[in-house]
From TrEMBL:
GO terms for molecular function: DNA-binding transcription factor activity; protein heterodimerization activity; transcription cis-regulatory region binding. Residues 5-39 form a coiled coil. This is BZIP domain-containing protein. Residues 1-41 form the BZIP domain. The keyword DNA repair does not apply. It comes from the Eukaryota. The lineage of its organism: Eukaryota, Viridiplantae, Streptophyta, Embryophyta, Tracheophyta. SMART domains: BRLZ.
Length: 122
């Protein structure tokens, strides 16, 4: 009977220890889950910022391509009217099809501004 009581006491202690270990593990996993949630939120915010900047740059590239086409048209008219040969630069394929970047034919100087967050200037 004493042996049985001692065995039951040890069993209760083991179960108590298991419950405590599980509570500790649960607490640790909840902390890790919260940290991962914060990291996901920060990553999502960064993605949205980069995606927005990318959309702006894509629109600027399209606008600049249209300007280049317009200027080339003006040069063609000047060449036709004046009779002088004018060097009309071709629009690189990567400007017409930006999804095929990088563009090895374009060598545009990039000048970073001093203010953080400013767009790159060409």
């Amino acid at each position: 009977m004493i042996s049985n009581r001692e065995s039951a006491r040890r069993s209760r202690m083991r179960k108590q220890k298991q419950v405590e270990d599980l509570v500790k593990e649960t607490t640790q996993l909840q902390k890790e889950n919260a940290q991962l949630g914060q990291q996901i939120e920060v990553s999502g915010l960064r993605f949205r910022e980069i995606d927005s900047a990318n959309n702006i740059m894509r629109a600027q590239a399209m606008e600049l391509t249209d300007r280049l086409r317009s200027l080339n048209s003006v040069l063609e008219v000047v060449e036709a009217v004046s009779g002088f040969a004018v060097d009309i630069p071709e629009i690189p394929d990567c400007m017409l099809e930006p999804w095929k970047l990088p563009c090895p034919t374009m060598q545009l100087p990039i000048i970073a501004s001093a203010a953080a967050g400013d767009a790159l200037k060409y």
